[in-house]
Amino acid sequence: MANPLAGVHAARHRLKESHPLTLLIVERLALSVLLLWAVSVLIFAGVEALPGDFAQTYLGQSATPQAIANIRADLGLDRPITTRYFEWLGGVVQGDFGNSWASGAPVSEQITKRLGNSLFLAFFAAAISVPLAVGLGMVAVHYRNRIPDRIINILSLAAISLPEFFIGYLLIVFFAVQLGVATFPSTVYDGMSWSERISAITLPTATLVLVVLAHMMRMTRAAIISVMSSAYMETAELKGLGAFKAIVKHAAPNAIAPIVNVVALNLAYLVVGVVVVEVVFVYPGMGQYMVDAVTVRDMPVVQACGLIFAAVYILLNMVADIVAIVANPRLRHPR
Amino acid sequence: MRLREIPLTAWIGILGILFAFFCAVFASLIAPFGEREIVAGVWEPASDLYLLGTDNLGRDLLSRLIYGAQTTLFVSLAASILSFSIGIFLSFTAAVSGGPIDQGLSRLNDLMMSIPTLIFALVVLAVLPQNIFILIAVMAILDSTRVYRLGRAVALDVAVMEFVEAAKLRGEGRMWIIFREILPNTLSPLLAEFGLRFAFSILFLSTLSFLGLGIQPPAADWGGMVKDNKDGIIFGIQAALIPGGAIAALAVCVNMVVDWLLKRTSSLKGGRGDV
């Protein structure tokens, strides 16, 4: 072991003695930071290593070598990759993602506005879908293998199989075109009143809810069933504990971790759902911005959006893990 | 496995998948018109001649749908077979060798799984040239991370079971152990996983094509057809919903088969109930 690491090891050991839980959480946080850094390398350098030259693809096949050299110099692509990576990373840490190749405008300006829009949409979708999914999951467990469970099972299986854009267009056809009660396209702009904003995002929110609801509900159901069929629940029943007491004392602490995990996983899934739903509903969020940038190969925008989406995803997974560690003492003693 | 033990939903799923493959294989015989043939006006309603109407350029929607089955099924099947091969190969290698190889592969896998698949695909496709083989490779590599995870778990799980130990002790050869002891016990979960990957590939390809980054026009592909016809929706023209429905129907069929395979797996493992 290298010498500088010895101090870290000693500190780790002291912390393990006094606050084992804190140590686990700190380690999980450190892991996320490391992961985020690795993702930034992957998104910047890994992409660079792929075959295909930015300038070449940007200008097209018929570009002259001189034009390609010019644009490379313009965009700073002629400098070594490590220099550019650290410049980029230094900017990112300060919230500066560079300038868009297509418009020349700073990427961060666009992103702050659009990230707010996307989070607004995702927040409403989450606020509706999480309680609904956990509730329906419990209903399914309660009526396990009876008619309501089977109906929920078949419907959720169908919902999992529908592509996001198909659900979106079905809702548009039904509610916006045939009934005329909802607005489409869902454009939002500055200075829009709250009620207008809410009515604009009704359909995209409904689509996102439908997309994640089925997944979340099926996973909640499986999590609850696996807890309920475990040996300690049988013991609780055999020793004469009432059903309610058994659930409160034995099932709930064990079910929290898997359910939080399910919720976090699906909120992370919302990140992806947002991209498609924004394109369907012409909603000015991050997803639409990223897809447009990919079409014109505007790399600074693509990298910035990719990094932010990945960061949200990593953050949610981290929260899920930490809640699981806190809720379930068994996870504090790996191996 | 007895045929009458297969539930009705799985039968419907199997028949649906076979029907889609039939359309894909015999597309040029069944389709009334050509894939890129402009036969009538834009967005004509369904009639005796054009059973599903025409699309945004006046091409027969039914013919495009049949040819689209070819592209959609070929690309998603190729991607899932490739991803499965990569995932199984690397995961079994990792499980057998252990040590630094296992660590290295598993950490790389964790890293790749920490970026949402669609986002990763968008970043990569922004750089790579647009080409059907590159598309298949990108889909396969991104998806193989899921197969790797399952494959490694399954391989580690089965290799230490008592019956494998018993077979070793009674002196069976390595081939017997792999094919008669380990494989039959991993076949069911792996088959179910393959189905899941296939369903995911169909949806993923359709999503990419819908975003304009998958199959490029004029080739017919179900996701791309939704994109082509989406502008008609606001005028009450539902041409975009037909390919969308086809994607959904195919994915439902695959998922119904997978559901049955998963249940079968859990009952084989002696699981309690239908977790």
Detailed description of the structure:
The complex is a heterodimer of chains A (335) and B (275). Chain A is 78% helix and 0% strand. With 335 residues, chain A is an all-alpha fold. Chain A has a domain at 121-297: MetI-like (MetI-like fold). The model of chain A has no long low-confidence stretch (mean pLDDT 81). Chain B is mostly helical. Chain B is 71% helix and 0% strand. In chain B, helix 4 crosses helix 6 (132-159). Chain B starts with 7 loop residues before the first helix and ends in a 7-residue tail after the last helix. Residues 270-275 of chain B have low confidence and may be disordered. At the A-B interface, helix 2, helix 7, helix 8, helix 10 and helix 12 of A face helix 5, helix 8 and helix 10 of B.
Structural class of chain A: mainly alpha
Order of helices and strands of chain A: HHHHHHHHHHHHHH
* CATH architecture name of the domain at 121-297 in chain A: Orthogonal Bundle
Query: Could you estimate the helical fraction of the residues of chain A in percent?
Result: over 70%
Distance between the termini of chain A: 23 Å
Alpha plus pi helix count of chain A: 14
Q: What's the level 1 CATH class of the domain at 121-297 in chain A? A: Mainly Alpha
Work out the number of β strands of chain A: 0
Overall shape of chain A: flat
Strand segment tally of chain B: 0
Question: How would you sum up the global shape of chain B?
Answer: elongated
| Proportion of residues in β-strands of chain A | under 5%
Q: What do the pLDDT scores of chain A average to?
A: 81
β-strand amount of chain B:
under 5%
Largest sheet of chain A: none
CATH superfamily of the domain at 121-297 in chain A: MetI-like
Count of helical regions of chain B: 10
Features:
heterodimer; A: 335 residues; mainly alpha; MetI-like fold; 14 helices; flat; B: 275 residues; 10 helices; 0% strand; elongated; disordered C terminus
Brief summary of the model shown:
The complex is a heterodimer of chains A (335) and B (275). By secondary structure, chain A is an all-alpha fold.
